[in-house]
Write a structure and sequence with these properties.
By secondary structure, the protein is an all-alpha fold. It contains 9 helices and no strands.
């Protein structure tokens, strides 16, 4: 369940780690599983999202409007990322707030025509950082140290 929740857009690992905690999963299992699950969709998003968005816009004008909003949001966030590509993408993904995360970072990278080889490292580091932040907030620094 933790892996699947961390793969879902919006929730990502920000939702998976607290849910894992609520179900009694050990933090040293929950955190890496959440990070891994959050990274699974990234290559598919970076490589295929533009083609999928184009196909949706052709097939459904209604869904096309939603796609346009998603593209506009990703393009707006890409302005910040373009200045300092690696660090900008890492920070965008690392901040565990709504509208950030691996899905948004991967969409921004796709909108910027970044290749997966260039986009994946900062996204992966950002996901790991977000996992650490969410874990500290969820378990508390003392709780994590007690589980060593």
């Amino acid at each position: 369940m933790t892996l699947l929740i961390s793969m879902a857009p919006v929730l990502e690992l920000r939702g998976a780690i607290p849910v894992a905690t609520a179900h009694g999963l050990d933090p040293w299992v929950a955190i890496p599983v959440s990070i891994l699950g959050n990274l699974i969709p990234v290559p598919f998003i970076v490589i295929f999202i533009r083609k999928i968005f184009h196909w949706i816009q052709e097939k459904s004008p209604r869904l096309g409007a939603l796609v346009q909003r998603l593209e506009n949001r990703a393009k707006a966030k890409s302005a910040t990322v373009e200045r300092c590509e690696f660090w900008g993408l890492l920070i965008l993904v690392a901040i565990p707030l709504p509208g950030t995360g691996a899905w948004t970072g991967a969409m921004v990278a796709a909108m910027m025509d970044m290749r997966l080889k260039r986009a994946f490292p900062p996204i992966a580091l950002g996901v790991a950082a977000a996992g650490g932040i969410v874990a500290v907030v969820t378990y508390g620094a003392f709780g994590i140290l007690m589980n060593l």
